Amino acid sequence: ELGLPPVVGTLAGLKSGLVLVTGATGSGKSTTLATLVNEINSQRTCHILTIEDPVEFVHQSKKSLIHHRELYTDVPSFAEAVRASLREDPDVIMVGEMRDLDTVRAVLTAAETGHLVLSTLHTGDAIGSVERLVGSFPGHEQGAARHRIAMVLKAVVSQHLLPIKGKTDVRLAAIEVLIVNQAVSNLIETAKTRQIYSVMETGSSYGMQTLDQSLAAWVGSGKLDMSQARMVCSNPKTLERLARGVA
Known about the structure:
The chain has eleven helices and seven strands. Helix 3 (about 80-85) packs parallel to helix 4 and helix 9 (about 210-220) packs across helix 11. A hairpin with a 7-residue loop joins strand 6 (about 155-165) and strand 7. It has a seven-stranded mixed sheet, sandwiched between helices. The chain is of the alpha/beta class and about 250 residues long. The radius of gyration is 18 Å and the shape is globular.
């Protein structure tokens, strides 16, 4: 139970494009991916293919038909698994991790050809995730990569798990949400990714929120200690200003 913002659930309604869930190891990325797959499985009839190393969640088919693929057991690599999956006519492809450029290329191609792709990166925030994707390409390809990413990226959900105040064994999720609207898409394509932060700050009507906004809300609720929030925040001064506003 990560307490995901409602907008995350709406991502299950997407029919194509790329949705990224990011964060450090142990931040709950796999749980969020599984939640999205379960939402799709419960909502509509489609073919879902999951590719993991190892398979962490075994989903039973509800409205959707689900097939699982395990790295090294069923497939030799994430990239090859994604390419092979396109021959199986999936609607949704869940890729456990994008570890290399070959996988990034395969994922973008899948998203460009009408599939919904869900995947993860080991990045701490939404802007860093976009820059990681672009930076995985050689310099001479980055302009074209920005265009491809701007066209297919639909959302980035970045997670940090932190202990609830007064409890060492229960954690809450501080979550940054970037929804790629036309403004964000333009900033990605024109290499102005740093300006995305201000769009997130003012994008609550789209379901967006910055990490600091999420942290401040938890601090204001009394469930998160400010010292814990400061350890992962983007800007301590912004965090404190926001926390005063919601406390």
